[in-house]
What we know:
The complex is a heterotrimer of chains A (342), B (308) and C (351). By secondary structure, chain A is of the alpha/beta class.
Amino acid sequence: MTMLEVRDLTVTYRYGGASLAAVRSVGFTLDGGEILGVAGESGSGKSTMALSLVRLLPPGAGITGQVLFHGEDLTTATWGKLRAVRWAQASLVFQGAMNALNPVRSVGEQIAEPIRLHERVDHRAIGRRVADLLDSVGVSSRRASAYPHELSGGQRQRVMIAMALACRPDLIIADEPTTALDVMVQAQILQLLTDLVAQSDIAVIMISHDLAMLADTCDRLAVMYAGRLVESGPAGQVFAEPRHPYTQALSRAFPRVGDPTSRRAPASLPGEPPALGAVGDGCAFAPRCSLVMPDCLTRDIEPWPSGPGREAACLLVLPDPAVVGEDGPRVGERHPRVGASD
Amino acid sequence: MTAPTRGRTRAEEPAGEAAAPPRYAALRRFARGYLRRPSGIVGLVMLLAFAVAALVAPSFIHPHDLDVTRASGALMAPPTGAYPLGTDENGRSVLFLVIWGARASLFIGVVATLMTVFIGGTIGLVAGHYQGRVGALLMHVTDWFIVLPSLPLAIALSVVLGQGASSIIIAIAITSWTGTARLVRAQTLAVGARPFIERGRALGASDPQIMVRHVLPSVLPLILVSSILTIGSAILAEATLTFLGLGDPTTVSWGSMLNSAFAQGAVTVGAWWYLLTPGIAILLVVMGFTLTGRAIEHVLDPRMVDRA
Amino acid sequence: MTIDRAAPAGASPTGGAAPPALEVRDLHVTFPSRRGRGPARAVDGVNLTVGAREIVALIGESGCGKSTLARALVGLVKPTSGEVLYRGTTLGYSNAALKAYRRHTQLVLQDPGGALNPRQNVFDAVAEGLRLHKDTDRLGARVHRALSQAGLRPPEQFLERYPHNLSGGQQQRVVIAGALALEPSVIVADEPVSSLDASARGEILRLFLDLRDTLDLSALVVSHDLGLAWNIADRVAVMYLGRIVEVGTVEEVLLEPKHPYTRSLLSVLPGTLSHRRPILLTGEPPDPTAIPAGCRFHPRCPAAAELAPHDPRRELCHSRALPPLTGTGRPTSVASCHLIPSPVPSPSGVG
C-alpha cells in the first residue's frame, strides 16, 4: 500500500469575506524510502500544501480533499489520531533551526522530549537513544548537553533532523531545510538526509524554492505554481527536460556551469506570479507564458500524462493539442523567451 | 507563505505626477487612516471636549464662582438644577470646579510630558546612536534613575522646591523620563541595525544626516505615541501628588478636589458627586489619551496603510 | 538577446595604461576581540582589481570575509592596513574624501526589503543619494532616468509606491536605481540576488550586464554561488578565511579549477545532475578568530588529506604559510596552494 496518497487537496483561506485558494486540487502519492521534492517560488502554496498534510495551518484555513496516510484520511481524522500521527509517524523539519529550537534547554533534552512523552522507556535508554540519534546525524554525542547557541548553523539543522527522527517516523516533511545554510553545509545536510532515507524506509517530502537542489537530491519532483501542481515526474527528467513552460523557465533560471548558452546570459522569467485569489479561469501561468494559446485562457487545465511517470498541467502535452480547438499550438511558433526583459 | 495577502492594492492607482509627490499626501493619508478607527475618534472627541471646556472656561466661570468667601450654594449639597453636579464644602459648584480644574491638570500633564519626552528622547537617541562609552554612561545614569522610587522622590522634590505646579512638573519629569529614554534607545538600536541605515551611509550620509533622515523619522511616531500615553500617567501623577497635599492649595485641580473631598469626609457623608466627578474626569482624560495614542500608533505603521 | 557580452579587450586591467577602476593592495581588516575570542582577521591580505567595464565575482562561504571586503571597497569599513585605490588614487578616510568617493562607488545590499526605508516611497528612496549630496537640480528628471535605467518602466508607475508594495525583484531595482542616480562608475553588490526568487534572479543579473553595456559600469558582485559567476562575471575570485585562494577568468576557474577549495565548491553546486559524488568538506567551519597555521585551508583540504604520510608536501601544507595572491589571474588563473606544481603560468590549466 502506498504510504501517502493525496487526492484533490485544496486549502482555502477566508480573508475579508472572500475565500482565497492557496492550494488547488493537488494530488500525488509517496512510498517509503522515496524523496519527493516540491518546488515553487514564494507564494506558490508549497509550504501551505505541506503543512496542510498534517493540518498544521492557521485558523481560518479550510482543507478539502483527502490525505490518506497508511490508508487513513488525515483531513477527517480525530484530533487524538492526528496528534499521534504528528508525534510519532510524521515529523517536520523547518527552515531556521535557531527559531525552532528552545534556546534555554540543551539539545539532548529537546531530542529526548518526544521519546519520553511517547514511549515508556527508562532514563538510560533515552540517553542511549539520544546519543545514537546525534551520532546518526553526524553530531558528536558529547554535544547533547550543549545549548542551541553553542552550535553552528549546520549542527543545529542536524539536531533538528535528529529530533525529527527521534520517534522513528515513517514520513519527514522538510520545509526549506537548507535555505539559510552555506553551500557546503547544505551539501552535507542533503547527503545526510539521502543517506538516512537509503538506510531506512522513511519517506521524505522536501520543499524548496531551489529546483536545482531538489533535482539532485530527490527521486521525484513536483513543481507548484499559483497553488497547483503544474508538473511532476522523476526528478532528473523534470529538471533536465521539463514539459511545462513554467518548469522550463524555472529550470533555465538556474545556472549550469559549463553550459555555453547560459554564459553571460542569465535566464529569467518576466512578470510576477498572480496574487492569491486573482486566479481566474484557464491556466494561471497563461499571462506569463511565451507559448500561450487562446484555449489556455478558457479551458480547464488539469495534469495530463506527459511521459512515463510524468504529468504536466499544460495543453501542449496533450497528444494532439489541435483537438482542443482550431487555434491549437503551431509548433513553428514555439520560441521560449530566454532572454526577454520586461 | 501562509499569509493570505500580497499587498499590491496600490498598483491600479493612476500614476502620479512626474515630479515629487505632493507634500501633504502623507498627512492626508494619515487623516484618512485615523478616521477609519472608531476608538481613536472617540478618544479624540473626549480630549477635545475637555480641552475646549478648559480653554473657554474663563468666559462663563467668574473668579467669584470659585471664591470660597463668595460661593452662594448650599454646603455639600447633592446635584440640583442650579448645581448639576452638586456643591463642595464651601458651596461652590462641583461642575465649575471640575471644568476649572481641567486647566491645571491638563497644563501640568502636558508640560510635564513635554519635559519627560525631551529629556528621555534626547538621552535615548544619543545613547542608541552613539554606542560605546557615551551610550554606556548614559544608560548607567538611566538605570540609576530607574531604581529610585518615584513617589518618595517626587515628595522629596516637592518639599525641596516648595509646593506648587512647577515643582510637581519637575518631579513628574524627573521620575518618568527613564521609560521614554529606554524605549527610544531600544528603537534607535533596532533602526540602527536595519540595512537601510547602511545603504544611507553608502549613499553618502553623515552621522547627523542618518539621525535626521532615517533614525528620527523611525523613532518619532514612537515618541509621539509614548508621549500621548505619558500625558495620561502624568495627569494621574499630578492627581496623586496633589491629593497627597503637595500641590498649590490655592489652585483648583482634579487632584486638589479629590484631596479636599477626602479631607472633608465626602466618603462618610455620602457626597458621591464630590468624589466621583474629579475621579471620572481623570479616568476619561486618561482614557482619551490612551485611545488617541493607540490609534495614532496603528495608523503610523506604514504596513497598515494599505490594509483594512 | 544572444549578443556577445564579453568585456572588450581593452577592459583587461593588465593590458592598457589605464589604471583599474577599483583596486585593493594588501588589504587587512581586523575586528577587535569580543567575548574572550581573539581578534577576527576578517580580511587578511587581499589584492584584487576590478578593471574598467569589468564584472568580477567574489565567491566564498559565510565568514570568509567577502562582505567585509566589499564594505572596505566602498569605504564603509576602514582597513586596518593596506589601501583601496579608485582609478589609481588611494582612498582617504576624511569625511569629505569619503563623501566624494560615494559618487563613484556604490553599494547594493543583499536584502532589498531591508535596504529600503519602509517610510520612504520609491521617489524618495531613489532621490536619497542626490539629496544627501545637495545635488537636487532637475531631481525629478534624474530620478526618472535612474528608475528607467534600472528597468522600472514606466517610472511614473512606481514613484509613489512603498517598498512593501513591490516584489523582491522590483525592490532590488529601486535599490540599484538609488545607486545609479549618483552616476557611479563602480557598483559593489553584496549577494544581490540571494534573497530573490529564481525568476527574479535572472532579471537582476541581466541588469548588471545591461548597465555595463549602456553605462560602462564596472561591478564587483559578492556571492556564495559559483553559478552567478558563470552567468555574469568576466573574472572570478574565490575567497577562503580572509584570503583570495584562486583568481582568474570565469572559464578557467570554473571549468579547470586549480585550488582544492574551488574544486570542492564546484562539486557541491546543485543542478549539474552529474553522478559523481560531491567532495564534501568536513571539520569546523572557518573561524577568522582562529586561522590555522600553514596553509589556512589545510585542516579541511581533501587534497592534503590524500597525501601519503611521508610526503614532504604534507609538512609544507601544515606549517608553511602561503603569501597573499597577487595579480589579476589574466591570462592564466593563479591559485594559492602548495600542491600546485608551479605558480608559473602554464598554457593549459593544472587542475
